[in-house]
Amino acid sequence: MAVRPLRIGTRGSALALYQAGLVRDRLRQAHAELAGETAVELVPIRTTGDRVQTRRLAEIGGKGLFTKEIEEALLDRRIDLAVHSLKDMETHLPAGLEIGGVLPRDDPRDVLVSRSGMPLAQLPPGARVGTGSLRRRAQLLRLRPDLALAPMRGNVDTRLDKLAAGEVDALVLALCGLERLGKADVATEILSPEQMLPAIGQGALAIECRAGDTELRQLLAPLNDAASAACVAAERAMLAALDGSCRTPIGGLATIGGVRLTLEGLLLSEDGKAERRGRSEGAVSDAVELGTELGLRLRRGAGSEFGFD
Length: 309
What we know:
This protein is of the alpha/beta class. It has helices spanning 14-30, 48-51, 57-60, 68-75, 134-143, 156-164, 175-180, 214-220, 226-242, 287-299; strands at 6-10, 40-44, 81-85, 97-102, 110-114, 128-130, 148-150, 170-174, 189-191, 205-210, 250-257, 260-268, 275-283.
């Protein structure tokens, strides 16, 4: 790997490039042989999810459309690793790929950004709120069924531009994305997990690599945060047990206190009228088992109102 640059695959948005740059900088700090300016290279890759902005993800194949082309480049050895917002990754990775590390998790909560400066509870009836997420949509409808929800996709700046142009009265965005772009001051209100349970893996950055790449895994080891990795492993295990996708409104958030992990899970109908909520607690070392148990418990008895047969 010293012969040529270590190649990091990433989407090309400002946020994605910032996130990949963060991994590059931490690799440089951790390894003297990667400290040179040309030792690590960012390789922007345009994904289907970036190209198709006018349709909901559920209509065009799901959230994996933000990772598909990057993962193909990884399997074809055109890149050595990839950096993703973990919430964009499919529940089951393609054969031959694995998560090689999780950086310390940033704030996983969602925020409301409103033109008027009003918080969610004070938005007038019929206010238009933009979101492309079924999870956010269902939770908004559960809290404020009188709102008019408008489908909206695109990067953070595109959404903020649409808000400024008056296309919507408010947006719901991930706080971590605004913080990474230096735009956290635009948030009107931080939504608590009780109001808006985050997406699986929200706030976490994952490094994806080829399975069995021992040399690369050694390079990534200093970047991995064990607590964050355990939390997202529990959340992803819950999602896998639910057989969840972007077609099903699902929220989940794991937290750690001492050696104990607590996982909150939420399954909603698309209209927000039906919900199943649960909690699982246990040892951090049992993260995957705790997630699987909670997912199976939420799934048991959930019918067509939740998108299951």
